[in-house]
Structures are given as C-alpha cells and as structure tokens.
Amino acid sequence: MKQALSRPAPVYAAGAGLFRNDHFQMAYATTDMVQAKALFSKRYGVKEWRPLEGALPAGGQIHIELGWAGGTMYELVWADGPGSEVFRAGLPADGFAIRHHHLGYYVPTAEAWAALKAEVAQQGLKVLHVTDVPGFLQAIIVDTPELGHYLEYIFPEQAGVGFFEGTPSN
User: Could you tell me the pTM of the whole model?
Assistant: First the structure.
C-alpha cells in the first residue's frame, strides 16, 4: 500500500497573494542563543548551524543561526540594542524564551521582488525591517497582525544564494 503523500506541484506567483511565494524558512526569536541552540539540537535534531551576525542599521546587534532540517531552513534570531525591537517583540524582558517570529519566503528574481514590494505597498502593509546588503541580499519583514507572526521576504543575490546553500543540513 502506498503511504507517500502526493502534493500538488508548487506554483509561485509573486504579486498574487503573500503566501504565493516560496516558503522555505521558519524563524524563532530568542533571549539566549546558546540555550536555544542546545534545545533545538536535543529536542528537534537541528545540531549544525551557520552563524550570521552584525550591526543593525539603527546601531544594535543581531546574531542569526541557520540550519536545514529536511526541506525547511530553521532560523534562530537574537538581537539587542537600537533597531532590535522587531526581533524582541513577544519576548519577555527576563529569562529564557523562544518565540515564533516569522515565516521566510525566497524570492528568486528581480521581477518577483518588484511584484512583491508592489503588493505589500498596494495592501498598505507595514514594513517593519529592511535589509539591503549589496551583492548579498535584500529582505523585508512585513507586519501581519492577524497572523500573530511576521512574514519575511528574501531576495538573495549570487553570494546570498551561495551562503544559504552552504548552510548545514541536519
């Protein structure tokens, strides 16, 4: 007896609905990266990570860890200081916590990126964070209050694609 789930082939259509893009990532914000990584390793089997860290545009700091499990990339985010508010929203001021932060969507072309940004503007959605690292990637985090989490759209250039492809698979 066949047990495999037969799924429809994905059809992406940037500009035709925010979920009509390539969902590839689940992200969680945390108050303690060391504890979060230990929990994801022990409980969820994501043991190998690729770090990415640096300054936020407003002056704060961000530390991200990325790891693939199956066809999904998991992201842990820790941030502090000016500009970190979007990453700390929903986290307690004290103690250890992990909270779902966003679903991440891969945007493959400049045309799809333009269509997505036009759709966000046309719907009047609030863009909470913008990342623009020339030669690496562009990204936006969009507020979707009715969902209880954010949506992030990532348009990587060749170096960004290589970075994601070099993320460990668990």
Answer: 0.94
